[in-house]
Recover the amino acids of this structure.
């Protein structure tokens, strides 16, 4: 079974040595793609239209709406945008599925009940008024950099979304109005468009979209910004618009026009279209747009990132090594070359001007071209390189690995943990100004269990090959962070995977790498927690609802990925021969198909607590890894019987 799973993983390796999988999931990305093209007087490639439409329609919920991701409950934000996207693709308003969609979102106010990002996108089309938006003036970029709410202090994903949004808001950008847009104004609202009280709509959010409450701080900030918008100086606005455009240019150049993610990529493209129609920036952006398109069984989707290649490849390396490196040596050699090629060799251009952390020596989530390295991606890449080194397959010299370690050390926060792209720059209270409505933890790049564990494991591995490396203090502080963040029930909450099985696997792996033994109380509590959530059939299962509700929520069936994460945790805790482990391994083996694969499963990835995302390589990687450890344990506990072979008897040696 392990052999078949290994063959599947090797067979699906890309020519460049990586593993490149489906990283789609957010159901507002395809609408944003289509709306952005429409705003630039462009249409999707004729060969893409049917695939985009099929994917959108495949994910409509039974109630008529769309969620943030497949399987998520309907929200006005995504439902209105997916409705608009289909109308832009030529679907008639009388279509039965569009009628179901209207029946769902009109009683909730239509766009008036949408989360704020949906309103901002609709304003670009003239389907919502700028007076109804929470103000995002571009002048925020002109504030003193020392202020805790200067945009440069926000989590980089957040500031890169609000950067083009602020520019569009400052210009009150609106596309040329068409008869279709006039029809949509009539279709989207439960009342005549002309009679809407837009200022009252600023704070209006449907219950379905109000995951992050709008507290007193945010309402006060909105009022202050609204007052400023009425009184702002035209000269200062011009300066702010120029600064925003300069920051957008800096992002484009540092990422080779890929941008940090698809949302700001599409918005940046629209900004350049409005500023310099058909200019070189627009052409450069359009050339990179196809990078984000992702074929899926349901149709054509949009990936959130240009890919998850580096991340997926580091785990594939670890799984293949666990399964027996001799059986996958060529694949590991190709993977080693890919990892070497993706290391960032220089800092981004003008890092201080564009508020970028030094990045030399680090690794990104996807490819070197992307230009945004991350703490845990760097940690996993270092681990993978050091695993390949004894095999003679590591291509990254020690001096470059030392640069990676230096990058990791530079990102450690005061609390001992690690954030994602940068050390934490803002106080925790800035999250109270989160105006997204539908997401959590978007304002501040806080420390995360997964990032901390990956970095600690990398530093421990580096210390083994470089005993003189001054990393002991960072390891100790990281381990303290992991211990402090264990929940009372024995689990750790995952921030980038679903959810407690994922976070607990990372945390336990970090503690064990740091020297925790089987008897460690933290590991004992983790084992009890996981055993309590084992299903009757021996599997484990978690759904996206675990992330939303911040408690373990079982799915209707077992999940191979969840079960694999739990098994990897139990192996790390010294529970290789426990009853729970044996039952989990038996289920995982029985679940594997004759072709060596496991059946397709619900989304295993998460971001900002509410957004599900797909990692289809996980289903090829983690079950192989878990079963490989199981087989290794089985060989240790039950070694092959040594049969004693006697020499043949000589004729006549025995006398009667």
């Amino acid at each position: 079974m392990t052999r078949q799973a290994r063959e599947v993983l090797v067979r699906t390796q890309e020519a460049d040595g990586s593993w490149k999988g489906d990283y789609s999931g957010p159901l507002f990305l395809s609408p944003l793609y289509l709306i952005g093209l429409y705003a630039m007087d462009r249409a999707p490639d004729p060969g893409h239209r049917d695939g985009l439409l099929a994917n959108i329609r495949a994910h409509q919920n039974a109630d008529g709406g769309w969620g943030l991701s497949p399987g998520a409950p309907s929200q006005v934000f995504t439902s209105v945008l997916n409705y608009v996207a289909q109308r832009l693709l030529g679907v008639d308003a009388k279509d039965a599925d569009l009628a179901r969609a209207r029946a769902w979102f009109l009683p909730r106010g239509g766009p008036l009940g949408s989360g704020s990002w949906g309103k901002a996108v609709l304003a670009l089309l003239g389907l919502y008024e700028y007076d109804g938006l929470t103000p995002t003036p571009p002048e925020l970029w002109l504030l003193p950099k020392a202020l805790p709410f200067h945009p440069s202090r926000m989590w980089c994903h957040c500031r890169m979304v609000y950067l083009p949004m602020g520019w569009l808001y400052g210009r009150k950008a609106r596309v040329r109005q068409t008869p279709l847009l006039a029809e949509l104004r009539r279709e989207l609202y439960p009342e005549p468009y002309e009679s809407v009280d837009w200022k009252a709509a600023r704070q209006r959010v449907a219950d379905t979209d109000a995951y992050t409450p709008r507290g007193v701080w945010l309402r006060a900030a909105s009022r202050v910004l609204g007052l400023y918008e009425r009184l702002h100086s035209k000269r200062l606005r011009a300066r702010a618009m120029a600064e925003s455009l300069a920051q957008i240019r800096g992002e484009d150049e540092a990422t080779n026009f890929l941008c940090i993610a698809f949302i700001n990529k599409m918005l940046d493209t629209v900004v350049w279209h409005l500023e310099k129609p058909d200019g070189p920036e627009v052409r450069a952006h359009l050339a990179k747009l196809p990078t984000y398109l992702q074929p899926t069984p349901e149709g054509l989707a949009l990936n959130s990132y240009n890919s998850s290649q580096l991340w997926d490849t580091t785990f594939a390396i670890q799984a293949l090594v666990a399964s027996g490196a001799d059986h996958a040596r060529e694949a590991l050699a190709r993977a080693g070359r890919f990892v070497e090629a993706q290391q960032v060799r220089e800092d981004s251009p003008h890092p201080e001007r564009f508020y970028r952390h030094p990045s030399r020596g680090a690794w990104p989530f996807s490819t070197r071209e992307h230009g945004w390295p991350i703490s845990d991606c760097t940690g996993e890449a270092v681990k993978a390189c050091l695993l390949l080194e004894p095999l003679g397959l590591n291509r990254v010299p020690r001096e470059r690995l030392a640069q990676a370690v230096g990058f990791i050390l530079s990102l450690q926060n005061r609390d001992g943990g690690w954030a994602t792209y940068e050390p934490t720059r803002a106080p925790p209270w800035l999250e109270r100004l989160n105006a997204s409505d539908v997401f959590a933890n978007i304002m501040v790049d806080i420390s995360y269990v997964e990032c901390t564990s990956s970095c600690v494991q990398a530093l421990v591995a580096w210390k083994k090959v470089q005993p003189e490396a001054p990393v002991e203090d960072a390891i100790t502080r990281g381990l303290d962070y992991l211990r402090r963040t264990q929940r009372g029930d024995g689990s750790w909450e995952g921030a980038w995977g679903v959810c407690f099985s994922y976070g607990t696997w990372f945390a336990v792996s970090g503690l064990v790498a740091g020297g925790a033994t089987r008897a460690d109380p933290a590991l004992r509590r983790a084992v009890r927690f996981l055993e309590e959530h084992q299903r009757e059939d021996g599997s484990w299962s978690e759904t996206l609802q675990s992330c939303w509700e911040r408690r373990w929520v079982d799915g209707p069936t077992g999940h191979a990925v969840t079960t694999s994460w739990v098994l990897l945790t139990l192996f790390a805790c010294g529970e290789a021969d426990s009853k729970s482990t044996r039952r989990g391994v038996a289920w995982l083996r029985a679940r594997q198909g004759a072709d060596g694969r496991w059946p397709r499963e619900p989304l295993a990835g998460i971001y900002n607590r509410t957004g599900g995302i797909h990692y289809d390589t996980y289903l090829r990687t983690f079950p192989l890894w878990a079963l490989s450890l199981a087989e290794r344990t089985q060989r240790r506990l039950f070694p092959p019987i040594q049969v004693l072979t006697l020499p043949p008897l000589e004729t006549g040696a025995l006398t009667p």
